[in-house]
Specification:
Elements (H helix, E strand, L loop, with lengths): L1 E6 L4 E10 L2 E11 L1 H4 L7 H17 L3 H5 L3 E7 L3 H18 L2 E6 H6 L15 E6 L4 E8 L8 H13 L3 H4 E4 L2 E8 L5 H11 L7 H8 L24 H18 L5 H30 L3 E5 L6 H10 L7 E3 L11 H12 L6
Parallel strand pairs: 1-4, 4-5, 6-10, 10-11
Antiparallel strand pairs: 1-2, 2-3, 6-7, 7-9, 8-9
The structure holds 5'-O-[(R)-(carboxyoxy)(hydroxy)phosphoryl]adenosine and zinc ion.
Length: 362
């Protein structure tokens, strides 16, 4: 089974071809144009500019794939939601046009589902043990999910009453909590009540004077850290609150930067910037890995996954790996390459293929 995938949900224009054979997801071709250089001078992604760039770039990328190659695919997948509305429309229009003219089936894919399934890129599905808990952490999303294979005995009794509680406390409707894709049931358990971790990486990076996106830059600068006598809050780690909140951390970073600037009577020096980057990164990373492992303990699920743009952060992965044994984690899944952490079309393809499998994996 083979598919062409189109991703245009935010600031990456991407096309990919993935094949699925003998339970293995093979990323045959991936084309990517990042719009970062065009948005960076504004400090943020500008929606109008993003959709215009997608419109021209997606055709350039399509030109790089032979029409004969496209004719061989079984169906066309595209990101349908969530994302920037006009940018999503560019991908959807191209997918619809190709589907109409080449008589191919169309498969819309949800952005979060394909992040979760990005652990399957270049992987054999039989190597994944269910159920597992996934932390999706990117510039927009910061959620925890339980992924069950409904063909297997899962026995997560607590989950039914938990989703009911979630619904009552946060007035979510059932569609927000549970989605189904192939034999997989994806249940949202905990989420951020304000900013996502990637969003605070980007905002604090901006406070330190760097352009969008900030995650990788903070990570690089943090490596040059030298000891300082301050740290940032780890929000809701000790309390019996399971959800995430990062706005207080963002405000604390802003306050600290202003305070140090006043003390110095001038702009921050390079070493102070690296120290702030490090302390900030530590606060985010500790909150994320501890919540993920807390969820695994709470639901007695010993397989965990980390996906989304922030999963490219090595520091975060190292903490999880170092604490795996103590928390009795059997398997830790994360995308095989950093490329599969951030937005791109390969993951849509994987999710698109899974949507098209029958219940016997064929
Ligand atoms: O999944 P993604 O490509 O797009 C969204 O769906 O938002 O994630 C982008 C986010 C940005 O906020 C970026 O700063 C963050 O992922 N990011 C990182 C790293 N690489 C990307 N955050 C921390 N450390 C990194 N190495
Ligand atoms: Zn994403």
């Amino acid at each position: 089974m083979k598919t062409l995938a189109i991703e245009t949900s935010c600031d990456d224009t991407s096309l990919a071809i993935i094949s699925y054979k003998n339970w293995f997801f093979d990323v045959e071709k991936i084309l990517l144009h990042s719009q970062i250089a065009e948005h960076t001078k504004f400090g943020w992604v500008i929606p109008e500019l993003a959709s215009r760039l997608h419109e021209s770039k997606v055709i350039d990328l399509l030109d790089e794939i032979w029409i004969e190659e496209i004719k061989k695919v079984d169906f066309i997948s595209y990101t349908c939601c969530p994302g920037l509305p006009w940018s999503l429309l560019v991908g959807r229009t191209l997918a619809n046009t190709l589907s109409l003219f080449l008589e191919k089936k169309l498969t819309p894919v949800h952005h979060i589902n394909w992040h979760i399934l990005s652990i399957l890129c270049d992987e054999n599905i039989n190597n994944i043990q269910f159920p597992f808990i996934a932390l999706t952490v990117s510039g927009w999303h910061n959620n925890l999910y339980i992924i069950e294979n409904t063909k297997e005995e899962n026995n997560i009794d607590e989950l039914a009453s938990y989703t009911e509680q979630l619904q009552n406390n946060y007035s979510l409707n059932q569609d927000d909590i549970i989605t189904k894709i192939w034999n997989l049931k994806i249940t949202k358990i905990w989420f951020t009540l304000d900013d996502a971790a990637g969003e605070v990486f980007d905002k604090v990076s901006r406070m330190l004077g760097w352009p969008y996106p900030g995650g990788k830059r903070i990570w690089d600068k943090a490596k040059l850290w030298k000891k300082m006598n301050f740290d940032f809050p780890r929000i809701w780690l000790k309390k019996k609150e399971f959800n995430f909140s990062f706005s207080w951390l963002k405000a604390s970073a802003n306050y600290k930067i202003q305070e140090i600037k006043k003390e110095m009577w001038e702009d921050l020096d390079e070493q102070t910037i690296c120290n702030i980057a490090y302390e900030f990164e530590q606060a985010v990373v500790e909150t994320l890995w501890k919540k993920l492992l807390k969820a695994s303990k709470h639901f007695w699920i010993e397989n965990i996954a980390l996906v989304g743009g922030v999963s490219a952060n090595e520091e975060l992965k190292i903490f999880i790996i170092n604490h795996k044994e103590k928390f009795k984690i059997k398997n830790f899944y994360t995308p095989k390459k950093n490329l599969y952490s951030t937005d791109n079309a390969a993951m849509i393809w994987v999710a698109g293929i899974i949507e098209n499998l029958d219940s016997n994996n064929k």
